[in-house]
Write a structure and sequence with these properties.
With about 140 residues, this protein is an alpha+beta fold. The protein has helices at about 50-60, 125-135, and strands spanning about 5-15, 20-25, 35, 40, 65, 70-80, 85-95, 95, 110-115. The strands form 3 sheets. The chain has a 4-stranded mixed sheet with strand order 4-1-7-6, sandwiched between helices. Strands 3-2-9 form a 3-stranded antiparallel sheet, with no helix packed on it. Strands 5-8 form a two-stranded antiparallel ribbon. A hairpin with an 8-residue loop joins strand 2 (about 20-25) and strand 3 (about 35).
């Protein structure tokens, strides 16, 4: 069981010009085999937008413009199997440059664009909770 700390996570829902959503296939032990947007832990002193933009750059290589990043919703995510608890800030953007690439091959197998009506079934818990409770 994890130490009993609730952490703050961020996820950045990126949309291309076809309004498709970018998701990555996780390889790490936390959520292995599930799909999620770029994201991770908020670092001390960061704004919501700074954290989301940093994570997207670290994971996908994409340059996201901060003026376009907006908060879409917040989820309360308890991962029973690992005992981890996150409050996840789910942000969205459609203004970015570059093409997504796997920048952390030990954590992500691939990045793929999905039509919103054809999302994969095996979503990471925070993505599942967000997509169930918010309309994007």
């Amino acid at each position: 069981m994890q130490d009993k700390i609730t952490r703050v996570g961020v996820g950045l829902y990126l949309f291309n010009d076809k309004h498709q959503l970018l998701l990555g296939l996780r390889k790490s032990s936390h959520g292995n085999g599930t799909w999620c947007p770029p994201g991770g832990h908020m670092e001390f002193g960061e704004s919501n937008e700074q954290a989301a933009i940093r994570e997207a750059k670290e994971e996908t290589g994409l340059e996201v413009l901060p003026e376009n990043v907006r908060l879409l919703g917040v989820t309360n995510d308890f991962f029973e199997e690992s005992g981890k608890h996150y409050i996840t800030l789910n942000l969205g953007a459609s203004d970015f440059s570059g093409s997504p690439r796997v920048m952390e091959p030990d954590k992500c197998a691939e990045w793929r664009w999905f039509d919103l009506d054809r999302l994969p079934e095996n979503l990471f818990l925070s993505a599942k909770n967000f997509l169930k409770n918010y309309h994007i």
